[in-house]
Amino acid sequence: MAIIEEARKTSRVVAVKNRMNKTVIQVKNGERVEAMVMASLTIDCVIFGFWEGSLEVLLIKHAEGISEGKWGLPGGWITQEEHIDAAAHRLLRELTSLENIYLEQLKAFGHPDRFPLGRVVTIGYYALIKREDYSLKAGFTASEAKWFKIKDVPELIYDHDEILQYSLENLQKKIRQAPIGFNLLPEKFTLLQLMQLYEEILGVEMDKPNFRRKILRMKLLMDLGEKQRNVSHRAAKLYKFDDEVYRKLSKKGFNFEF
Questions:
Q1: Are residues 13 and 83 in the same domain?
Q2: Which long-range contacts (CB under 8 A, 24 or more apart) does 32-36 make?
Q3: What pTM did the predictor assign?
Q4: 86 with 165: CB under 8 angstroms?
Q5: What angle do CA 85, 170, 221 make, to 5 degrees?
Q6: Domain limit, last residue, from 174, 198, 226
Q7: How far is CA 170 from CA 105, 160, 167, 204, 258, in A?
Q8: Tens of pLDDT, residues 95-128
Q9: Residues 63 and 170 reside in one and the same domain
Q10: Is the CB of residue 61 less than 8 Å from the CB of residue 71?
């Protein structure tokens, strides 16, 4: 019994050591309050967007702490009573004002030396969003929230380069197995825009006739019978995704190689 009681005491001590107080923002009134957070567990989010033919990622500049003035992925600490999914949404809202986004969990990143002040494991999330549907506003511990083209991403804090690279590789696998343009493109788009999305994600240059033939063969797109307006070049046809086909292909998947 003495051994069991000692083990319980040790467990309680370890539990206390694994918590610490941090400032968080209350959802109801937006006030900053002190809350107990997990001392060795954080969240980082990779948010992809597509704008003017380029794949982009959302980054924040830290306004305080050991990373002040440096760029990184939106993320932070998890409160003691919080579900990790809820924490991801809260942090994204606090730092960038983005809300109502479908976040998908990637994996845990836990190199012993990833955080300079001690052992901290981070859980990665990622999302694909239409930039034009959201307005950015930096808040909480972020002085800036900004979209960067993937090729122009600055040096990132900790292991955020590794997390971003893993997210991109995951996206490259996914785009070959399921349609994803619905999350990144406007409702009406051209075949060129869709091809540019694939080129940006996969990092390859595609043959336009070959891409057109393969994508149309899938019956995934609906020809709207409309063309672009107010463009300086020859107006191209506009398409949209067939919702029913999109859902079916998303569920069963496919092998889309170029």
A1: yes
A2: 35/79, 35/80, 36/79, 36/80, 36/81
A3: 0.84
A4: no
A5: 100
A6: 174
A7: 11, 15, 5, 16, 18
A8: 999 999 999 999 999 999 999 989 999 999 999 9
A9: yes
A10: yes
